[in-house]
Design a protein that fits this description.
6-stranded parallel β-sheet; about 30% helix
Length: about 260
């Protein structure tokens, strides 16, 4: 595998950083290639602005259109082009982050905002039909995506009746709305709970679980989301009446 490991935590002594080292060591030991993008160490700027697209700041900025034109004409800023090259190289992307406010840290969201531009990760079309490709068929098709997240709360509170909501639902925007939308095949997330209270033995257990998970990664089946162009959705991008009858909400978009 060619793994792009993207991590987002401000402290290199954190549980997140330690697990990233474990993961990279495990993958390279198995013969896989790994590139690490430590966004805090890189001092990544998460803010989209006109300079990303070589756009005249005196003119109104329509982000999607400006990004697509700059991508097509090779005018994206160098740091964005460099990250896109890492994505092109990869066949697997690891999103690693602490779960903050039921989502990813702003620096990682900003990496996605700036790098996943129109015409590259989304907004691509089928050359034969002109149809826009998304949800399983976007610009990053052919890659898989794994979320590795550390969570302060207890596991039970992220279950089906837990006060925080099921982890699968909390990560739906990342798994489905980002990874799958752009064509990547998301894998089931890897979560470490009680991260703020982790002991040495807790860490050893989490590291062992991560190593085992990564060892089986090449054979792992992705989350069974419904592809947009599978025939399950109508022209308005709504599930057809005969598909998952009686089911609504997020659960209806899984093939199970």
């Amino acid at each position: 595998m060619k793994v792009l490991w993207i991590t987002a935590h401000p402290d290199p002594r954190s549980l997140t950083a330690a697990l990233a080292c474990e993961g990279v060591r495990a993958l390279t030991g198995l013969g896989h290639e790994v590139r690490v993008r430590d966004l805090y160490a890189m001092k990544w700027n998460p803010v989209v602005d006109a300079a990303d697209f070589d756009h005249d700041p005196g003119r109104r900025l329509h982000v999607g259109a400006a990004a697509k034109q700059a991508h097509r004409e090779g005018r994206l800023c160098p740091e964005i082009r460099a990250e896109q090259d890492h994505l092109r190289w990869s066949d697997t992307v690891v999103w690693q982050f602490p779960l903050w406010w039921h989502g990813m840290p702003a620096i990682l969201k900003g990496w996605i905002d700036r790098v996943f531009v129109n015409g590259f990760a989304y907004g691509v079309t089928d050359p034969a039909t002109g149809a826009t490709l998304r949800y399983g068929d976007g610009g990053l098709k052919g890659r898989r995506a794994l979320v590795v997240t550390t969570i302060g709360g207890r596991e039970s509170a992220f279950g089906p009746r837990g006060v925080h909501g099921a982890l699968e639902d909390l990560l739906f925007p990342i798994q489905h709305g980002i990874s799958f939308y752009a064509g990547m095949a998301p894998l089931a997330p890897f979560a470490v709970y009680g991260a703020d209270r982790s002991t040495d033995s807790d860490y050893a257990e989490a590291a062992a679980r991560l190593r085992a998970r990564l060892a089986s990664l090449p054979e792992e089946e992705p989350v069974p989301f419904r592809r947009q162009d599978s025939g399950d959705y109508d022209e308005e991008l709504v599930l057809r009446p005969e598909v998952a009858p009686g089911r609504t909400g997020l659960a209806a978009h899984y093939r199970r």
